[in-house]
C-alpha cells in the first residue's frame, strides 16, 4: 500500500537538513519526545513518522545505511511506538520487544500478516525463528519463498495422470477426467469431462468452512490440503507399477482425512510413483510408502504407510518446496546463506544432479548451483528429468535428455544442472516438467516448451485447421508457444501430466483466473467435451471453470 493513501503524512525529504547522523541522534536517548512523535495528523513538515509502518521503516533504514551505533539509538527511541501502532491505524497484535532492532521488528510485523504464520502460537513462532537461523528477517524470507514457488493462497490447476483438479482462491475444488478409482472425490467411479465441484456431504462435514489451499494428483489418487494444515485423500491407496491397469487394495471415492498426518500442519504434498511426500509449515519433509532399504532416508517396512521425517542433511534445514518425480524427490531449502536444492532417491540418468547416476538414500546438496552462481527459487521434478528457475531468471535442467526435454538442442543426458542457453534472453519466473516435457513461463507471461510432442501437449503448430503442420513433433530447444499468446492473457502457471503411463495434457492458468487446456483428453481430463473420434486438442481451449 502506498503511504499516501493511508492517512500518514507524506515524507518531505527536501525539508530534512543535511547534517551528520550524530547531530540527528542526540545523547542521551531520553531527549527524544515520544509524545510528539505522532503516526498521523500532527507531525511537522520534514518529520519522519517512525511508527507509521514498521514494514516501511525496514526499507528506509536499510537504504539509509546508518552507522550501527546511531541506528541503535534510533531503534531504542522508536521501538515502542512501532510496536503499538500500525500502518492501518490499528494496534499491533504483539507486544513490543525491546530486544528487537527496527528491521527485525518490521520483519516480525510482516510475518504476522502471512496466513501460515498467523495461527501459530508464540512458542511455535519462536521455534520457527530458531529453525530459520534466529532472525525474523530469515523467517519472512522463508514464508515468502514458500508462497511464491507453491502458489499458496492462490488459484491453481493440476494436470494429473488421466484426471485433473482445479482449486479456486476461495478454496473451492473442481475435479474431472478419469475416475476408475474414485479419484474425483464425487462418491462414484464414473468418469466425467465437465468440471464439477466436490460436494459430497462427508467432505463438507469434514471441512466445516475450512478452505483448500493446495492439491496434488497421482495415478488414481488425489490429495487436498486445507488452510488448517489437514490433508484429505481419495482414490487408490497403493503405490507402484503393479497398480497400473489394476485396482489397488482399497478405493476411497470421497475425501477422507488422513489420520496419520493429523498432528502435522501440512502446507504441500507431492506424489511420486512409489511414494508420497508432505511438507510441514516449519519446513520439515515427511515421506511414506517407500521406506524399504532406506531409500528415502528412513528404514521401515515397505508396508508401513505412516509418515516418517526425512533424515540426513535436511533434519535441521527448513524446506520451502518439494517436487516428486517417478522415483526421486527434490527439496528447495532456505538457509541463512541462501537457497539450495537437495535430492534423494533413484539416480538413473543423472536426475539427482550430483554428476553421477548412483542412488542417494539421504538428501544430498546439489553443489552445481554454487558453481553457476545461481540462487534457485523454483524446482520442478519431471518423471526422469528436473529443472530449476534461478532468482536471476536463468533456467537449469538435468537428467534424462530424451526427446530434447532438457532444451539443450540434443537428447543427451546431463548429470549436473546446466543452464539452458537458448533462454538466455528470457527472464523465467516459473517452470513445469512432465514425462520428458518442459514448460517455462517468462516474467512477461510468454510460455516456452520443449521435449516430447506426443498428444500435442507442447502447444506448437496448433493453429492449422487444414491438418498440416506437426503438432506432435519433438522439440529439442525451447520454442515460444504462440498459441497461448493468442488468448491475450498473461499466463502465471503451467501444469502438465507427470506420468509415464498416461498420455499428457497441459493446463495454462492466466492472471485473471481463466484456464486453458490442450493435449490428451480421452478420459475427459481436459474439461472440454470431445466429439466423434477426437482424443485430444492441439489448440488451447478455454475450460468452463472460473478460478478468479
Automatic annotation (TrEMBL):
**Pfam families per record:** RCC1_2, WD40_RLD
Which keywords, in A-to-Z order, does the entry hold? Receptor, Repeat
What domain of life does the UniProt record list for this protein's source? Eukaryota
Alphabetized SUPFAM superfamilies for the sequence = RCC1/BLIP-II
Which Gene3D superfamilies does the entry mention? Regulator of chromosome condensation 1/beta-lactamase-inhibitor protein II
Domain annotation RCC1-like: ranges: 154-496
Q: In residue terms, where are the RCC repeats?
A: 171-228, 229-282, 283-335, 339-392, 393-444, 445-512, 513-548
Protein name stated in the entry: Ultraviolet-B receptor UVR8
Q: Which organism is it from?
A: Senna tora
